[in-house]
Design brief:
This protein is α/β, with parallel strands linked by helices. The protein has a single domain, classed as NADP-dependent oxidoreductase domain (TIM Barrel), CATH 3.20.20. α1 links the parallel β3 and β4. The chain has eleven helices and ten strands. The chain is globular. Bound molecules: nicotinamide-adenine-dinucleotide (NAD). The site of nicotinamide-adenine-dinucleotide has 24 residues, from α9.
Length: about 280
Amino acid sequence: MDIKDISGTTTLRNGIAMPVLGLGVYKAKEGREVIESVQHALEAGYRHIDTASFYGNENGVGEAIRTSNIPREDVFVTTKVWNDDQGFEQTLSAFDSSLKELGMDYADLYLIHWPVPGKYLETWKALEKLYNEGRVKAIGVSNCLEHHLNEILENFEIVPMVLQNEFHPRLVQQPLLNFCKRNNIQYEAWSPLMRGEVFKLDILKELADNYNKTVAQLIIRWNLQKGVVTIPKSVHRDRIFENADVFDFVISGECVRRIDSLDRGERTGAHPNNFMDHFRDN
Ligand code: NAD
């Protein structure tokens, strides 16, 4: 993983280069808000945007990229198939809808958003088809544990290239990171800033001060030094720039270990083994 500057990438198991830092756009409103967020990010040098059909803002993401003067192939775009759209045929048509919303003729990474019981293996079959047809450059999964990955590894030819999971100082899941490393699956963090909760941990402020950096910068840097691709979200120009200013310092091994030690196995989101009720109730 190359983390020397914002153009740094990691090479996925199929040879595709994935930028190590991206912008997350969950809850960025469709239209002006998401368009401006992506514009700020592109100006700051980000070349990786993480959206999903569930976020309802693929259209704005596509528009911001299209009108940016940056060639399509220079921006890495991730989108995801939502729970209600899983199954073989449904996934194929959900992918068509996502591309239409994005106004693009391919996606860089297509992920299964959550491993819907009884369906995600069929969904993976559809992702393999889309990949084999060249409609997506890489495929992967989100919100999976080792047993979900093993099911895919045992039943299919294509190993997921990426696992996008909740990851922050309170939820490290080091054994799962190790499993992914062993299987050459790139780990990617969602909610790296714990949806703003990291700012309540005093120890992180202390550690960040040692480097004259903000807590957000310390945590993003910690993600990268652990080999984890990261997609912090903000719709504010100054924060989008701040979150990209993480390539001029290196945190010590001791500091990495201190952040690791804050792990409590705590989630801000649903558990991968029990999420259907969460989304039914929310
Ligand atoms: P996050 O951890 O990135 O936190 C975002 C919040 O942190 C923002 O709303 C903002 O309030 C704050 N923030 C950001 N930069 C800051 C800064 N420099 N200073 C102070 N506050 C700052 O949370 P997230 O949006 O949940 O996660 C990031 C991205 O991950 C999402 O936008 C989405 O793309 C992806 N995601 C994926 C899944 C999934 O199921 N695959 C789930 C959640 C999120």
